[in-house]
Write a sequence for this structure.
């Protein structure tokens, strides 16, 4: 008689192979824990780096728009006119004579931390400065709280 003639033999081996043992589960948990310890610290820094990169990209776009404004109007927007002069034509002096029909930007972005970008004319670091105060929203700081500005792009 062969094992094919005994239906109970197939049922017994199927029951033994039906699940994982406690040892196998523990090995998987240990491996996943080790992977988490190695990978998580590297991934946690990424959102902060992405926010800083987005801020630099936004600032580069704003700087380009400010320079286009100057090309058309022979001067930068004043500090009082601010960055809104890139979206809508200023109504305060000096009123630009050659303002672009659709403005210089569709809308003014906010920084990755939800605050408006800052503008100084004349700037501390050049003819004008466009910057964000970073995560803390306060001048100065280090790491994610550090100011990011157009002077970094130069």
């Amino acid at each position: 008689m062969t094992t094919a003639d005994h239906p109970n033999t197939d049922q017994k081996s199927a029951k033994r192979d039906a699940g994982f043992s406690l040892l196998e589960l523990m090995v998987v948990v240990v491996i996943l824990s080790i992977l988490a310890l190695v990978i998580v610290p590297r991934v946690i820094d990424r959102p902060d780096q992405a926010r800083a990169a987005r801020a630099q990209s936004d600032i580069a776009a704003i700087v380009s728009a400010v320079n286009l404004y100057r090309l058309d109007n022979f001067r930068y927007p004043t500090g009082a006119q601010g960055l809104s002069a890139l979206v809508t034509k200023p109504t305060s002096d000096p009123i630009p004579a050659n303002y672009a029909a659709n403005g210089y930007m569709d809308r003014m972005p906010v920084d990755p931390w939800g605050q408006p970008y800052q503008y100084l004319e004349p700037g501390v670091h050049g003819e004008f400065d466009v910057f964000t105060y970073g995560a803390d929203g306060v001048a100065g700081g280090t790491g994610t709280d550090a100011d990011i500005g157009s002077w970094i792009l130069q």
User: Anything to note?
Assistant: The longest strand covers residues 129-132.
